[in-house]
Each structure stands twice: as structure tokens, then as C-alpha cells.
Amino acid sequence: MNKRLLSRRQFGARCAAYLSLPAVGGALAMQGSSQVLAAAGRASKMAPRTVRLPDGTTTSALGQGAWHLGQGRHPPAVEEEAIRLGISLGMTLIDTSGNYGDGRSEQFLGHALTGWRDRIFLVSKVEADEVSGDGIPRACEASLARLGTPYLDLYLLHSPVPSTQFPGVVANFEQLRAAGKIRAWGVSNFDVGQMEDLLRVPDGPRCVTNQVAYSLINRRIERDLLPWCRQHHMPVMAYSPLGGDHHLVVADRTLAQIGAEHKCSAAAVALAWVMRSGNIIAIPESGSPAHTRENAEAFSITLRPRDFQRLAEAFPGPSGAT
């Protein structure tokens, strides 16, 4: 077969153009609730994988990122359908940040998740330039208002700050936790040295995760950070698990071949690979129901040793990785 496959970006662009037609877009919007109900029925045939956080909380190993949602990439009704469909299929961890679209991602989720709050594990973030003074509690209150929720399940420091600021950051997180504004906290984009410095701070060991980039084409953390997190029983949350906007892996021939053998999408294979250890949470973003379904297929497949060998050959890891 020599038919040319569309990339996810191309597919999404065509869907957005198609759904912009009033008659078609309106019709699909009306069908949204029935699609979610149908998806809930199909979800019973899957076996969602979970990850246990250090505080004892269990969450889905496959979540949904929201970096671009609510910012005009797709019709709002389509993005809402995609996010709700993902929840029905077991992708109940939702990741956003106060700085995604200057708050528009959180505002979108606040509307899209109305009535769904008790089914999700909601994650947001505070920026490094907001940690001084009372910046962290103010940022948290702003996120809570945009999301329309009284608490976050997890609140992350989006990027590292100087280690001298770690005590203040941790103290603010712990105050928010004691007040019931957040249930747990973590960090993002920390390296091993920063993680070690963090754990030396009083209450620093309460950190439950480090969110970092990780995918078949970005395996740098395998050299040191991933083994360190494994040693400290700290799950990693992988953003851009399909490679990110400009480096999507779903068009790769090896992934397509393995997906065909498992009767699933190439995206599902890539995500199953990321989640393979049982200690990594993958948070791919999807703005369309079609891509959400592709991602959710990762729940229902088990990669074989020969699959891992082929993927290792197609996507070599860093030297010195364990």
C-alpha cells in the first residue's frame, strides 16, 4: 500500500477546517454527548493503567495535556468533546498551567469540565517568576478561579528557581496543602542536582513528581534523572510523549508497523512505550476526538520484547543510559 498517511498536525488542520462549516460543526456538537456515552461503554473493555504517587494517591498513567486548548486551534465544541471523551476512556489526569495562553487553557477547562470534577485528577502550575513573596498563593488562587474548582490535586513549580529559593517554595506549597487548596505538589524540568537539593529542604521529600519532556525521540532523562527518580520511588510525568509539536513520532514507519500488528494507532504504541515501566505518567495533548481515541488505545496493548527491540533500533537511547 502506497497511500500517504497524514501527520496528526495535517489531520487536525483538515478536521478543523471541515468542522468550521456551520452545518457539520453544529451536527457534531449535537452528537457530542452520545459519543461520550458510547466511549464510556467501550472503556469497560480496556484496562487503564495507574501510577501510585509517593503520598499514596493513585492516578491514571495516561492523562491529557492542555497546553494549546482554548486558544483557537480547533472549534471549542470539538476540544470539549475530545477532553470529555478522554476522561470516559480512562485518561482522567488533566494537566494545564496558569501561563498556557495567559490563562485561557484553564478558563477553557473550567467550562469543559463542569460536572466532571469528581472524575479527574487536576494538575496546574506556578511560574518561576511568581515565587517571590506571596506570589505562589496568589497564582494558585487565580488558577482555582479560572478552573472553577476549590482545589487542585497537584500543583507544580513549572521550571527551576535558584536552590536558595527552595525553602520558601516548599513552605508555600505546604501552606496551600494544609489549607486544602492543593492536595499534593511537585516540580517540573528539574535535573538530578536540583532534585537532590530539593530533598534536603525541610518537607522537600513531600514532592510527588517531576514533570519533564520524555518520548522515543527525547530519551535524555534515561541517562541519570529517570534512574534517580526510580531509586527515590518518585514517578515521572512525561510531557510531549509523542515528541512535541515539531517532532511528532506518529508518522514513523516502525511505529506504524507495530501498531498494525497490534491493531492500534502508532500514537498508542509510542505512548505504551513511554508508560512501559509503570512509573511514568504520559500526558499527550489532543484537540480532536479522533486523536483522543488513538491515544487511549495505549491502555489496551502490551508491547512484546521484539517490539521494544525494534523501537530501540529505530530510536536509540543516549549513551550511558540504564
Describe the structure.
This protein is of the alpha/beta class. The chain has helices at 8-19, 22-43, 76-88, 104-112, 135-147, 166-178, 192-200, 225-231, 253-262, 266-274, 289-296, 305-314; strands at residues 50-52, 58-60, 64-65, 93-95, 121-126, 154-157, 185-188, 210-213, 236-239, 280-282. The radius of gyration is 19 Å and the shape is globular. Residues 1-7 and 9-47 have low confidence and may be disordered.
Summarize the structure.
Helices cover 42% and strands 11% of the residues.
What are the defining features of this structure?
322 residues, TIM Barrel, eight-stranded parallel sheet, 12 helices, disordered N terminus
Please state the overall shape, judged from the principal axes of the Cα atoms.
globular
Order of helices and strands: HHEEEHEHEHEHEHEHEHHEHH
How large is the count of helical segments? 12
Q: How many beta-strand runs?
A: 10
Helicity, in percent? 40-55%
Instruction: Round the mean pLDDT to the nearest integer and report it.
Output: 87
Strand order of the largest sheet: 3-4-5-6-7-8-9-10
Helices and strands in order, then pairings?
Layout: H1 8-19, H2 22-43, E1 50-52, E2 58-60, E3 64-65, H3 76-88, E4 93-95, H4 104-112, E5 121-126, H5 135-147, E6 154-157, H6 166-178, E7 185-188, H7 192-200, E8 210-213, H8 225-231, E9 236-239, H9 253-262, H10 266-274, E10 280-282, H11 289-296, H12 305-314
Parallel strand pairs: 3-4, 4-5, 5-6, 6-7, 7-8, 8-9, 9-10
Antiparallel strand pairs: 1-2
Helix pairs in contact: 2-3, 3-11, 9-10
